[in-house]
């Protein structure tokens, strides 16, 4: 019975950040050493497929035992600088989902919020204009709580508010200049030329359920167009921002994804890919039991 399940499913692993210096409260991500260790386990004990290969296996009902696909969301620079060199050494394929408005930039609103809280030196943070609240920021633990709180709240706010709040923080303080955090066009092209898959993760990374269907359509079409121009190749795969099925996106969004010309779309809901899986809402996982 167990064998049957293995033969008919593919685990899609989802990664965000792979950090040289993980600072646990600032970034959610894993350190390089742990990442290397896990990739070596995959190399030894699993069959790591590209999405194209996984798709072929699904279509022909030839899924190998212990099949895994690696995916990375958000287009961070360390995906190019760190993760792909580990993957190339081990000859492991992977797919990178890119929010195209942030290509080559210092990051999304959440990255700027992290930077602001990291360099915040005042004892309080007055956000009454946005949140009707003034936060204590004297200790590192307080700043950590503020960051977690604001991230959770802002995630579901309109982009206008996310950007305004971040601008407010940066205008009020003289933070050190932010370094580039996202891969450039040149780096994306290099990944594509090395055989890695590049997919879309929208243009500006909105949670689909929080914006209009028309905006979703624009996000899907614009990001596809931009990536195809950079890569000079078709882009067929998509990952929903935040990605919880029936919360962050619904059936109507899946129809738009298909209409925009994507063949597969990935959620962050937990599960495995089977021949019966809806290809416009493929579940993923953060973890395999073999890593424990
Ligand atoms: Zn994302």
What is the strand and helix layout of this fold?
Layout: H1 2-7, E1 9-15, E2 17-19, E3 29-31, H2 32-45, E4 47-49, H3 51-60, E5 67-73, H4 77-90, E6 95-98, H5 109-118, E7 124-126, H6 128-131, E8 134-136, H7 140-155, H8 159-172, H9 185-193, E9 197-200, H10 213-231, E10 237-239, H11 251-259, E11 264-270, E12 273-274, E13 282-284
Parallel strand pairs: 1-5, 2-3, 4-5, 5-6, 6-9, 10-11, 11-13
Antiparallel strand pairs: 1-12, 7-8
Helix pairs in contact: 2-4, 5-7, 5-8, 10-11
The structure holds zinc ion (ZN).
Zinc ion binds at residues 73-74, 201, 205, 241.
The SSE order reads HEEEHEHEHEHEHEHHHEHEHEEE
| CATH superfamily placement of the largest domain | Glycoside hydrolase/deacetylase
When the domains are counted, the total is 2
Bound molecules: zinc ion
Q: Helical residue percent? A: 40-55%
Give unreliable regions as ranges: 1-6
CATH class of the largest domain: Alpha Beta
Strand content: 15-25%
| CATH second-level architecture of the largest domain | Alpha-Beta Barrel
Would you give an account of this structure?
By secondary structure, the protein is of the alpha/beta class. The protein has 2 domains: 2-105 and 181-291, Glycoside hydrolase/deacetylase (TIM Barrel, Alpha-Beta Barrel), CATH 3.20.20.370; 109-172, no CATH class. The protein is 43% helix and 18% strand. The protein has 11 helices and 13 strands. It has helices at 2-7, 32-45, 51-60, 77-90, 109-118, 128-131, 140-155, 159-172, 185-193, 213-231, 251-259, and strands at residues 9-15, 17-19, 29-31, 47-49, 67-73, 95-98, 124-126, 134-136, 197-200, 237-239, 264-270, 273-274, 282-284. Helix 5 (109-118) packs antiparallel against helix 7 (140-155) and helix 10 runs parallel beside helix 11. Mean pLDDT is 93; it is low at 1-6. Residues 73-74, 201, 205, 241 line the site of zinc ion (ZN).
